[in-house]
TrEMBL record:
Superkingdom, taxonomy of origin: Eukaryota
Keywords: GTP-binding, Nucleotide-binding
One Pfam family matching this protein: IF-2
PANTHER family xrefs: EUKARYOTIC TRANSLATION INITIATION FACTOR 5B (PTHR43381:SF4), TRANSLATION INITIATION FACTOR IF-2-RELATED (PTHR43381)
Entry annotated with the keyword Nucleotide-binding: yes
Domain Translation initiation factor IF-: 152-249
Entry-linked InterPro entries: TIF_IF2 (IPR015760), TIF_IF2_dom3 (IPR023115), TIF_IF2_dom3_sf (IPR036925), Transl_B-barrel_sf (IPR009000)
Gene Ontology molecular function, alphabetical: GTP binding; translation initiation factor activity
GO cellular component, one term: mitochondrion
Protein name stated in the entry: Translation initiation factor IF- 2 domain-containing protein
Length: 285
């Protein structure tokens, strides 16, 4: 027994099962379950989200609710798209339009107002106005708890940027266990407005240079943002592995502390003197 041909045999079994037993395959768990993977802008289509529909079904015209940068986003599905056969969702090309799709499968959804959707969060389907309100409250509460758990904008800390909500949470959890404070978070590419948030660590009475940093995990950085950071003394650390970010930041913290220590050793501080005997005051002309 060499095992040769087993992958081909399994492939044929899966193929013919999908073709001839399609109507007999049923989902026992009918609870709707869908996750947002990526947010993309497609030429001629607009902003779309790539999702994995695990359970349930989606139809054109369904009302969906997703988490966004500025709060919950409520919108209606304009188009359900899938790639051509034997092609990946990420490969550019013409897509197949569908009126309805069932889980489990990957789907590209086109809908209005998706520009600020968060990748990595759940996608919910609403059937009534009351359900929309409940889902919006649930998403808002989740985002509030998330922010309160990891972020304190009132205290000095680093700024954190990640590609998805899941990767951001993983990075924040690691920073929390490493006792590194965080004052600001965001998802997606780094722009000038994101770098400006780190400026507050360079102003005021207590300047902490090591906190004027932005930890970027698996995201791109706009050239204008890099230029602005260099001009204002803000460090941007980029990496695709959390531990690499941690190593770069801890090394930079040690460097900043060494600079402060060296500056203190050469400083001359004022002092208060008391004259004990006025007869021992001399003045040479």
């Amino acid at each position: 027994m060499t095992g040769e041909g087993i992958p081909d045999l399994l492939g044929m079994v899966v193929k013919y099962t999908q073709v001839y037993l399609k109507k007999k395959v049923m989902q026992r768990n009918t609870e709707f379950q869908c996750t947002v993977l990526e947010v993309k802008k497609i030429t001629g289509v607009g902003t779309t989200i790539d999702v994995v529909l695990v359970n349930g079904k989606l139809e054109v015209g369904d009302t969906i609710v997703v988490a966004g940068f500025n709060g919950p986003i409520v919108t209606k599905i304009r188009a359900l798209l899938t790639p051509q056969p034997m092609k990946e969702m990420r490969v550019k090309g013409e897509y197949i339009h569908h009126d309805v799709l069932y889980g489990a499968m990957g789907i590209k959804i086109s809908a209005p107002e998706l520009d600020y959707a968060l990748a990595g969060g759940e996608l919910f389907k609403a059937d009534s106005e009351d359900q929309i309100d409940d889902l919006c409250d649930e998403i808002s509460e989740q985002m509030l708890n998330f922010a309160e758990k990891y972020v304190n904008p009132k205290l000095p800390g680093v700024c954190v940027q990640a590609s998805t909500l899941g990767s951001l949470e993983a990075l924040l959890e690691f920073l929390k266990t490493s006792k590194i404070p965080v004052c600001s978070v965001n998802i997606g590419p780094i722009f000038k407005k994101d770098v400006m948030k780190a400026l507050k660590s360079l102003v005021g009475e207590k300047v902490k240079k090591e906190y004027a940093t932005l930890l970027a995990f698996d995201v791109d950085c706009d050239p204008e943002a890099k230029e602005f950071a260099e001009e204002n003394g803000i460090k941007i650390f980029e990496a695709n592995i959390i531990y690499h970010l941690f190593d770069m930041f801890t090394e930079y913290v040690a460097q900043c502390k060494a600079e402060r220590k060296g500056a203190k050793s050469g400083a001359v501080y004022p002092c208060v003197l008391e004259i004990i005997d006025k007869n021992h005051i001399f003045h040479n002309c």
